[in-house]
């Protein structure tokens, strides 16, 4: 069988031909080392001209379009396009990432600029608002962001002489920005009479608030402040694309092909016209200039870079060339020399030397070129054109041999036969023409039979056969040179192919992902010698695979660089290099091929780091050469934790339902009960899908989690305390290094992480707003300041937090596959590892991002746990096959067999490690994993007498291990927590049910006991007295859903999921009797009261069977229900049954015959019921919530004193109501601890405890009942109700009025006066109110308080004489806003002044002079005001205003000295 692993050889990028000049400007600079930095496609290039060497930065995954150089000229910032584009700041020496800035811009990053100190970076997005963002780039934090302009912004620059000032320019505007706090405020440049309003393309700042800018018409506009001072007419013949400031002055470059140098006062020094030089040509257009000392760099539209020495300015050096704009498709390699030929839609054909890395010849053709081929002797070069013709040139001097046009559509592929006699030409006309080379290219044959255009062709070695591929994925064969199709496949069995460039055929099946369109791989080329294959595809990936690769989805190594589709890839004649060409990026990449033996030597060279695992990520296809996954892990990887309804959705759902219930809200509703419950003890531990979630605290207590509760368990007193801050399943838990705080992460639509104190059980910090669906792994750093978390979203996003501040430091997509563990390096908190399904990744923080590299481990394994060892580079991880992998940095040193089956948990000690696995063994190791020092098997035989329960089976799967206080703490998959003494005995501390829903619950009629039965196929008896332990357990052959004690407590009936039920002895759990009369699940089972003569058994088959217990016979069947039965209750006399069904019907049947009775509602209330566990009927009408469509009340139970009704529902709430619950939507007390649905609730015989079980969370919770009058300690939210009603005392009329004011509506409905014509004050082109605020036009609704903007500002005032307008100055304001604001008048300056507000003005009134001064930066009503009381900030005031919903509200702090 063919090898499906990735090849061991690899490719290394050696040279990139070209420069991105089109649609980019100002992207070419000298670094401090006098190297040149620029970009091509998705690669940042650092080019050393003296040594003629290139280095590459490969951290982007799409086209780079902007670049800025740090003032110290070592660091470079580059911005890319894409759906979620990011900015990389990288070092031009090491070409490694320093910082990643992400999560703000969309579409792309158009411009970048560093400030003078190099601390801040400003970026401009390509989104509709052209957002401007200022970054603290080292930390990856946004300092300020604001909408830039409605039209494109072309350039942005910091004012190097005034801190916190920026200038941006673009389509018909220039704006001057000031950065204050976290706000960017623009002022629009005023063109006035000095110059026409036009598009500004580039700018540079100078001293004294002077700004120079280059305009589209070739003029230079000089600004002072925000006003246009003068223009330099005709500086260039047309648009000025680039302006560069340096110590000597300014350099400008324009579309006219000229570079001009100016002194510091913008007086001209000299002009360099590149069109007139030797290398120049008509139409040369300059896109980028950089002036340093006596050297000038010039980048052109057509991908050339010139270097000009100032004193010899007529002889510029052409140091880089590439194809011009237009798709690049044609590529051929010379058969005997290291040459590559390319041809493009720019109509040029070029020959490149692969040794000198230079262009050695070029020739322009009449038509765009689509394909190329060199004859076997290397003399002729054939070019296929877009118009259906082809041309043959002599390679030697590029003279034409012949030009032939036989086809109308583009020629897509041509190939010379190995014997050099024929040329095959495949076109988009679905045919291949064969030409005789010696007969001056006379047509000698034609291959027809293809029903789509020809994409690829290969000749056989003997030149007798040709194979073709076409556009719809068919592979055809022809006999040569006649062109007759070969249909008999036997004939082809022995054919050897001279080359393999086809994408179809058994040899290359493996290049296709398992599920893929057949058109997205554009090119293939096989290297027969080394048995490797290179492919080029539409996603910009170059892949290396083994050849032949027969099975679909073969492994590969992949390389990024090209940003969009790669059109062609070819091996050089001696297989030293691979040449690839990009379509849209029209660049030529040359990759060095490193064969296997050399790859090994290259290991110690740090691989060039990249962002998207491209640095040879083994593969992105699912791996099938991985050993079968362990069943437990398989199960766990399939859990999604998605909910139909999240608790976060409730407020919204209630809002929707409110309308329906307005009427009900007016009625008097039943009030909440006086008594409450408090969580007392939980039986259960979440081990079935979590690992390493069990620790000792500082004080020797044990902390773990179950359902939605964090539990702190005191093993001496056998008591528990609870952290109740979560409202859904907790999935992971990490402990602070000081063991006093714990972090827990939960499931949720916007899931939260809580960091809480184990002593006080109070939250220290809650982190939200980043992870979707849930948080599956957490880890604290060694100093306890940072926290790493992993989300359950599709990309398993990793976030690094400063948890005390609640701020996100960095984030990055983790892996498509599930991540099980994250660990921060204890020595270097900027490094971390993640491990999970088929991967182990090593990350380090870079600004706001993380850079990850896959561990090199040969065959890919699933990692279940990982820890750092005794030094910063040592990592140990446990695999799903029972091995321990020992890593140094990212290289696997060796593996040690530790367990049979997966290693689920490991813990690092000061000298050594402890591991636990699925085999139920705890192993202690020395610090190198050389020797296993001791093993402990978890067996029933070694259970110590003080255990709080019974082990269900020997050697349970171990999911968590922790050490401390002389013991090893072990958590198992079966929900048990054990403490292993170093000398051997094992104490069981806590246990609960195993995985599977728990539904059955019954309390004993006169003892503090309860029984539960679950889908885990066990029946268990629990002691509810303070000893809190499991007294007995019995395995059943099927899972069960219900159970019930007989009235004397001696027998226990259990209903099973297969329709059978048993009655067992309540003490020994041995069978007394069993029946199997139904096929569907038994849903409820009840003994009749009194002597317990009858047993009612309800099933999913819609029947209730009544059995006589004494005679063990069925005596009656209740028929007539239309749906499965959910609840049953007997009346006091044992003569009547009430039944609820899944369709919310309520029925009554007479016992023991089962005759159906119809009883009016008024009579039902008079009946005395022995128990009440039903959820339907008038006496419990109020328990159904407002949102009954999405949630069911699953269970209810009335206390024995008939005063309090407890209910459990699908959302995990336990609620208490005052009984009877008449009238809809009664008030209640509500408690959250269960995570998903509460399946059953029961009061104990004396009402002192309430017992509840959860479905998915497998917990048994015991709540202490606190009677009325007991001062309730409310740890739970006991929210009174779903709807507020009038009888809650209502509001004062003023308060009601203020409560109902809606400022947005008011703002929208302001009556506008009709306005026509152009107001005089607008003719001056002053910025309108909108522009002063920086509000983007079009982002406001059409109605606004601001004056409407005229449509075309620039047309009305050309040539008009303008009158100067007097300015109005605000002098006095009458009024104070008291009608809907409070606490908004304050003394200032020791009582000399008072401050208040009215309308949109903040007013400071001096009490002695009665003078007012004003703060007028707000644009709408101010609603609140406060002053800073701290002596450090005297006279600092904050005011907040109303704003329309489309923008963010503004908060303005200001100094009262200078409002």
Write structural notes for this entry.
This protein has 1459 residues and is mostly beta strands. It contains 9 helices and 109 strands. The longest helix has 9 residues, at 650-658. Helices cover 4% and strands 44% of the residues. The model is unreliable at 599-627, 1272-1290, 1305-1361 and 1445-1449 (pLDDT under 50). It starts with 9 loop residues before the first strand and ends with a strand. The strands form 27 sheets. The chain has a 6-stranded antiparallel beta sheet, with no helix packed on it. It has a 4-stranded antiparallel beta sheet with strand order 1-52-51-50. Strands 2-3-4-5 form a 4-stranded antiparallel beta sheet, with no helix packed on it. A hairpin with a 5-residue loop joins strand 51 and strand 52. It is globular and about 115 Å long.
Question: What tags apply to this protein structure?
Answer:
mainly beta, six-stranded antiparallel beta sheet, four-stranded antiparallel beta sheet, 9 helices, globular
Alpha-carbon distance between the termini?
81 Å
Strand tally, please? Answer: 109
Label the structural class. mainly beta
The value of Rg in angstroms is: 39 Å
Main beta sheet: 6 strands, antiparallel
- In DSSP terms, counting alpha (H) and pi (I) runs of 4 or more, how many helices? 9
> Strand-residue fraction?
35-45%
Report the average pLDDT across residues.
Answer: 83
Question: Which word captures the global form?
Answer: globular
Q: What does the oligomeric state look like here?
A: single chain
Residue windows where pLDDT falls under 50 for at least 5 positions: 599-627, 1272-1290, 1305-1361, 1445-1449
Strand order of the biggest β-sheet: 58-59-60-61-62-63
Helix content: under 10%
């Amino acid at each position: 069988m063919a090898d499906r692993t990735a090849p061991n050889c690899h490719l290394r990028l050696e040279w990139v031909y070209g420069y991105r000049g089109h649609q980019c400007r100002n992207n070419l600079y000298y670094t401090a080392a006098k190297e040149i930095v620029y970009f091509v496609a998705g690669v940042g290039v650092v080019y050393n001209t003296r040594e003629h060497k290139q280095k590459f930065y490969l951290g982007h995954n799409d086209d780079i379009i902007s670049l800025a150089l740090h003032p110290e000229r070592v660091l470079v910032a580059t911005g890319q396009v894409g759906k979620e584009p990011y900015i990389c700041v990288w070092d031009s020496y090491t070409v490694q990432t320093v910082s990643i800035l992400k999560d703000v811009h969309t579409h792309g990053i158009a411009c970048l600029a560093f400030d003078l100190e190099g601390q801040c970076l400003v970026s401009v997005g390509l989104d509709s608002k052209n957002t401007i963002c200022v970054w603290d780039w080292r930390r990856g934090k946004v300092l300020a962001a604001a909408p830039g302009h409605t039209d494109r912004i072309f350039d942005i620059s910091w004012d190097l002489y005034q801190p916190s000032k920026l200038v941006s320019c673009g389509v018909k505007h220039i704006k001057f920005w000031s950065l204050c706090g976290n706000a960017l405020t623009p002022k629009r440049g005023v063109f006035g009479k000095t110059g026409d309003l036009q598009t500004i393309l580039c700018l540079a700042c100078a001293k004294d608030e002077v700004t120079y800018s280059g305009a589209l018409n070739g003029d230079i506009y000089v600004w002072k402040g925000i006003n246009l001072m003068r223009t330099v007419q005709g500086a260039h013949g047309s648009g000025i694309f680039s302006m560069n400031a340096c110590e000597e002055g300014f350099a400008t470059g324009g579309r006219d092909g000229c570079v001009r140098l100016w002194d510091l006062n913008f007086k001209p020094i000299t002009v360099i016209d590149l069109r007139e030089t030797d290398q120049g040509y008509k139409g040369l257009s300059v896109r980028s200039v950089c002036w340093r000392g006596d050297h000038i760099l010039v980048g052109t539209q057509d991908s050339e870079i010139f270097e000009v020495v100032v004193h010899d300015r007529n002889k510029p050096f052409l140091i880089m060339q590439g194809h011009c704009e237009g798709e690049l498709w044609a590529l051929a390699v010379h058969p005997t020399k290291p040459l590559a030929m390319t041809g493009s839609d720019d109509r040029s054909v070029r020959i490149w030397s692969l040794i000198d890395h230079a262009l050695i010849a070029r020739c322009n053709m009449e038509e765009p070129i689509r394909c190329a081929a060199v004859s076997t002797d290397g003399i002729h070069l054939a070019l296929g054109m877009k118009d259906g013709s082809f041309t043959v040139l002599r390679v030697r001097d590029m003279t034409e041999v012949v030009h032939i046009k036989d086809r109308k559509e583009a020629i897509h592929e041509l190939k010379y036969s190995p014997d050099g006699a024929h040329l095959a030409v495949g076109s988009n006309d679905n045919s291949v023409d064969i030409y005789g080379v010696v007969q001056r290219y006379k047509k000698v044959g034609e291959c027809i039979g293809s029903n789509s255009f020809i994409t690829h062709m290969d000749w056989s070695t003997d030149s007798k056969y040709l194979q073709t591929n076409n556009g719809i994925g068919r592979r055809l064969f022809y006999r040569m040179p006649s062109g007759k199709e070969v249909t008999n496949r036997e004939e082809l069995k022995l054919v050897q192919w001279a080359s393999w460039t086809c994408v179809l055929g058994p040899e290359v099946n493996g290049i296709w992902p398992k599920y893929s369109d057949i058109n997205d791989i554009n090119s293939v080329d096989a290297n027969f010698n080394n048995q490797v294959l290179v492919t080029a595809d539409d996603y910009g990936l170059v892949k290396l695979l083994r050849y032949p690769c027969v099975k679909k989805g073969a492994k590969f190594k992949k390389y990024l660089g090209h940003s969009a589709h790669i059109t062609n890839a070819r091996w050089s004649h001696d297989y030293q290099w691979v040449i690839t060409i990009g379509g849209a990026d029209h660049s030529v990449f040359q990759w060095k091929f490193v064969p296997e033996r050399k790859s090994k030597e290259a290991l110690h060279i740090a691989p060039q780091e990249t962002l998207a695992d491209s640095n040879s990520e083994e593969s992105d296809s699912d791996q099938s050469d991985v050993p079968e996954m362990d069943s437990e892990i398989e199960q766990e990887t399939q859990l999604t934790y998605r909910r139909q309804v999240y608790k976060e959705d409730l407020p919204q759902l209630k809002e929707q339902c409110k309308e329906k219930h307005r009427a009900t809200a007016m009625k008097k509703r039943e009030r909440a009960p006086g008594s409450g419950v408090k969580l007392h003890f939980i039986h259960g531990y979440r081990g079935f899908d979590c690992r390493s979630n069990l620790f000792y605290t500082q004080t020797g207590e044990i902390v773990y989690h179950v359902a939605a509760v964090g539990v702190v368990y005191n093993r001496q007193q056998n008591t528990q305390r609870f952290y109740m801050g979560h409202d859904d399943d907790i999935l992971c838990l990490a402990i602070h290094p000081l063991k006093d705080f714990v972090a827990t992460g939960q499931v949720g639509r916007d899931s939260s992480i809580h960091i809480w104190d184990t002593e006080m059980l109070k939250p220290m910090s809650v982190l939200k707003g980043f992870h979707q669906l849930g948080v599956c792994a957490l880890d604290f750093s060694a100093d306890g300041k940072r926290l790493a978390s992993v989300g359950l979203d599709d990309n398993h996003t990793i976030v690094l937090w400063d948890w005390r501040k609640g701020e996100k430091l960095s984030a990055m997509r983790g892996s498509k596959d599930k991540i099980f563990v994250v660990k921060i390096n204890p020595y270097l908190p900027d490094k971390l590892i993640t491990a999970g399904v088929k991967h182990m990744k090593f990350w380090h923080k870079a600004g706001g991002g993380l850079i990850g590299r896959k561990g090199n481990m040969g065959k890919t394994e699933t990692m279940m746990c990982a820890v750092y060892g005794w030094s910063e580079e040592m990592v140990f991880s446990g695999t799903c096959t029972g091995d321990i992998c020992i890593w140094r940095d990212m290289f696997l040193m060796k593996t040690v067999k530790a367990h049979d089956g997966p290693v689920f948990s490991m813990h690092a000690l000061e000298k050594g490690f402890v591991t636990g696995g699925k085999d139920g063994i705890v192993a202690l190791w020395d610090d190198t994993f050389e020797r296993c020092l001791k093993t402990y098997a978890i067996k029933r035989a070694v259970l110590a007498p003080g255990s709080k329960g019974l082990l269900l089976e020997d050697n349970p799967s171990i999911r968590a291990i922790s050490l401390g206080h002389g013991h090893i703490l072990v958590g198992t998959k079966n929900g048990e927590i054990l403490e292993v003494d170093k000398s051997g005995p094992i104490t069981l501390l806590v246990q609960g049910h195993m995985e599977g829903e728990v539904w059955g619950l019954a309390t004993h009629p006169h003892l503090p006991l309860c029984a539960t039965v679950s889908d885990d196929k066990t029946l268990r008896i629990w002691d509810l007295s303070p000893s809190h332990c499991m007294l007995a357990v019995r395995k059943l052959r099927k899972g069960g859903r219900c159970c019930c004690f007989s009235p004397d407590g001696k027998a226990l009936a259990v209903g099973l999921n297969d329709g059978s039920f048993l009655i067992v002895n309540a003490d020994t759990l041995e069978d007394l009797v069993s029946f199997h009369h139904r096929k569907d699940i038994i849903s409820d089972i009840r003994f009749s009261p009194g002597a317990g003569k009858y047993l009612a058994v309800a099933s999913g088959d819609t029947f209730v069977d009544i059995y006589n217990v004494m005679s063990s016979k069925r005596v009656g069947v209740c028929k007539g229900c239309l749906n499965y039965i959910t609840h049953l209750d007997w009346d006091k006399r044992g003569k009547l049954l009430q039944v609820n069904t899944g369709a919310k019907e309520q029925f009554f049947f007479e016992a023991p015959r089962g005759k159906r009775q119809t009883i009016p509602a008024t009579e039902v209330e008079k009946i005395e019921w022995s128990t009440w566990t039903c959820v339907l009927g008038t006496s419990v009408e109020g328990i159904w919530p407002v949102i009954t469509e999405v949630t069911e009340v699953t269970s209810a139970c009335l206390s024995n004193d008939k005063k309090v009704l407890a209910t459990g529902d699908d959302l995990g709430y336990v609620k208490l109501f005052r009984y009877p619950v008449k009238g809809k939507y009664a008030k209640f007390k509500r408690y959250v601890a269960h995570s998903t649905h509460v399946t059953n609730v029961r009061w104990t015989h004396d009402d002192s405890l309430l017992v509840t079980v959860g479905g998915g969370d497998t917990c048994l919770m015991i709540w202490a009942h606190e009677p009325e009058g007991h001062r309730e300690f409310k740890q739970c939210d006991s929210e009174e109700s779903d709807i507020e009603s009038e009888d809650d005392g209502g509001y004062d009329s003023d308060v009601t009025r203020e409560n109902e004011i809606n400022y947005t509506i008011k703002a929208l409905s302001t009556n506008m006066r009709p306005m026509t014509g152009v107001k005089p004050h607008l003719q001056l082109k002053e910025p309108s109110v909108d522009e002063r605020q920086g509000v983007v036009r079009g982002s406001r609704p059409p109605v606004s308080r601001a004056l409407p903007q005229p449509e075309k500002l620039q047309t009305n005032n050309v040539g008009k004489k303008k009158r100067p307008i007097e300015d109005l100055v605000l002098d006095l304001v009458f009024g104070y806003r008291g009608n809907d604001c409070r606490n908004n008048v304050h003394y200032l300056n020791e009582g000399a002044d008072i401050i208040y507000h009215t309308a949109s003005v903040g007013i400071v009134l001096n009490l002695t002079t009665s003078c007012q001064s004003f703060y007028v930066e707000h644009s709408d009503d101010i609603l609140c005001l406060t002053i800073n009381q701290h002596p450090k900030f005297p006279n600092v005031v904050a005011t907040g205003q109303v704003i329309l919903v489309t923008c963010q509200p503004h908060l303005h702090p200001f100094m009262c000295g200078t409002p």
